[in-house]
Write a structure and sequence with these properties.
mainly alpha; single chain; 162 residues; TBL_N; 2 domains; 2 strands; two-stranded antiparallel sheet; 3 helices; elongated; signal-anchor; membrane; transmembrane helix
């Protein structure tokens, strides 16, 4: 007899806890939905909260060529010979660490220097250090990653030092 009354008592507690828990869950969901709705209206209707940039073209100053971003897919292209040569070499760049100076460690060929990436349907202009520095003035630039990101940073330093 004791067991039946204790089991009915525990069922009553379960029912109350489950009912009370649903009440708390329901109020949590209601307030979450209300807060999300208010925040969404704020984002949608406040002036200058989210600026949507139109698709535009990149224009270079000083009569340089124009690149239409919509037609130029930088990821589709091929390597082509560049008879102007590299903008820097291991000998001309003071920022290349000695441990990464291929020529100092015996590399004889220089053919790998005379190539550039040519995207289909457009042509990339040569890197211009002054233009790049004007573009990033007042901005932060970070290289995040592994040794490949470090190589990119060292290459940029070489390009800027020429």
């Amino acid at each position: 007899m004791k067991s039946s009354s204790s089991s009915s008592l525990s069922q009553d507690k379960f029912y109350i806890n489950a009912h009370g828990g649903m009440g708390r869950l329901g109020s949590f969901l209601f307030y979450s939905l209300a807060l999300t709705t208010v925040f969404s209206f704020f984002l949608l209707f406040s002036p200058n909260s989210v600026k949507i940039l139109p698709k535009s073209s990149v224009h270079y100053d000083q009569g340089r060529e124009k690149i239409d971003v919509e037609e130029c897919d930088l990821f589709k292209g091929r390597w082509v010979p560049d008879f102007r040569g590299s903008q820097y070499t291991n000998w001309s760049c003071p920022t290349i660490p000695v441990s990464k100076n291929c020529f100092r460690h015996g590399r004889k060929d220089t053919d790998f220097l005379n190539w550039r990436w040519k995207p289909h349907n457009c042509d990339l202009p040569r890197f211009d250090a002054k233009q790049f520095l004007a573009f990033v003035r007042g901005k932060k630039l970070a290289f995040i990653g592994d040794s490949v990101a470090r190589n990119h940073m060292e290459s940029l330093l070489c390009l800027l030092s020429q």
